[in-house]
Amino acid sequence: MYLIKKIPNFALIFSPSFFEFSLAPAPAWHVVQFFILAFCHIDISSIFCLVTFRRYVILSKKENKRREKADRKREKRERQEGEKDKRLLTVCNGGK
């Protein structure tokens, strides 16, 4: 069994014997890099699976960054529109 990534309260574990991923409860540590607890009896399919999963997670991180950036732009635009609406209300109400 290989510990692939720790995420808050869970660890993603890959088992080459059963060729499956599973989530297991773990301490809430944030680990950015992937690491392997045991480095013996790794076959080609396991390595391919680990690399594929790593690529998937990296792409997911990029996608999350892109979404966060889009959200920040949207919030900024909404905030500016809200301020513009307040100014229009002030002008329409005679400066009150």
Produce a short descriptive summary:
The protein has 96 residues and is α+β, with helices and mostly antiparallel strands. 51% of the residues lie in helices and 19% in strands.
H/E element sequence: EEEH
Give the low-pLDDT segments: 25-45
How many separate structural domains? 1
Taken as a percent bin, the fraction of beta residues is 15-25%
- How would you characterize the largest beta sheet? 3 strands, antiparallel
Q: Give the spatial strand order of the biggest sheet.
A: 1-2-3
Biased composition (Basic and acidic residues): 63-88
Region (Disordered): 63-96
Keywords: Membrane, Transmembrane, Transmembrane helix
Transmembrane segments: 7-28, 34-57
Describe the structure in your own words:
It contains 1 helix and 3 strands; from the N terminus they run βββα. The model is unreliable at 25-45 (pLDDT under 50). Strands 1-2-3 form a 3-stranded antiparallel β-sheet, with no helix packed on it. It has one helix at residues 44-92, and strands at 2-7, 10-15, 20-25. A hairpin with a 2-residue loop joins strand 1 and strand 2. It has 96 residues and is α+β, with helices and mostly antiparallel strands. The protein is rod-shaped, with a radius of gyration of 24 Å. The protein has one domain. Keywords: Membrane, Transmembrane, Transmembrane helix. Residues 63-96 are annotated as: Disordered. The chain crosses the membrane at residues 7-28, 34-57.
Task: List the keywords.
96 residues, alpha+beta, three-stranded antiparallel sheet, rod-shaped, membrane
